[in-house]
Amino acid sequence: MSDIPETARRIEALLFAAAEPLSEADLARRLPEGAEVSAALAHLAETSAGRGVELACVAGRWRFQTAADLAFLMTEEREEPRRLSKAAQETLAIIAYHQPVTRAEIESVRGVQASRGTLDVLLELGLVRMRGRRRTPGRPVTYGTTDAFLEHYGLAALADLPGMAEMKAAGLLDMNLPPGFNVPDPTMPRSEEEAEDALDLEDAPEFHQDFVGDETP
Fold it and tell me: 0.85 exceeded by the pTM?
């Protein structure tokens, strides 16, 4: 049986030096064989709780971050390179809560035609990705959120998405959507047929690049 405090100490060192959050698999590859990574992470989370820097899991990966109640001490200000428009915020919210969702479905919820540029911006920022083509007439592409979306909003998983009021308070949505917008469970497919019809496009980056340029209203 491994020494959990010692394993936790090693994980602390790895996370401190890492340039980005690490998954349990990443940590296991760097630790001696048989190391109890999950137990060590739980131990580290417990011992760091309430301190200035705490252990947090975001999008399935672990990192140290400043305790939420000490955020006021972070006085450095910087200008965001690109601020999402209201249309982009609404589109992102719809995708987050209705994914996988097609462009036509986004337009149906918003009540207005979606601008090609709005989806392009979300794809370019890495907040949204194409999930696959639906096996319906026209073979429309479906969209979903990415791990970058979870990291940006500090969510461990899609199941942690907030309700409407919390969305507005967090800045994810700053204006009212038309009637028809609801908050389904984004971790579950909306139908058995839809789960079977979504084709994964992660192995086709060339198609992604071509699609962004060729998308038509």
Answer: no
Rounded distance between C-alpha atoms, residue 186 and residue 201, angstroms: 19
Report d(CA 61, CA 18) in Å as an integer: 12
Mean pLDDT of 119-128: 91
Task: List 130's β-bridge partners, or say none.
Answer: 143
pLDDT-wise least confident of 5-19, 104-118, 134-148, 157-171: 157-171
Give how many domains the chain has, as a whole number. Answer: 2
Say if 204 falls within a structural domain. yes
Last residue of a domain, one of 47, 73, 99: 73
| Region at 182 (left for phi over 0; alpha for psi -120 to 50; beta for the rest) | beta
Q: What is the mean pLDDT of the chain?
A: 76
Q: Are residues 34 and 106 in the same domain?
A: no
Residue 78 lies in a domain: no
What average pLDDT does the segment 2-25 reach? 91
Cα separation, 124 vs 30, in Å, equals: 32
- Spacing of C-alpha 90 from chain mean position: 16
- The phi and psi torsions of 132 (rounded to 5 degrees) equal 155, 175
Q: What is the separation, in whole angstroms, between the first and last Cα of the chain? A: 60
Q: What is the mean pLDDT of residues 7-35?
A: 92
Q: Which helix (H) or strand (E) holds 128?
A: strand 128-133
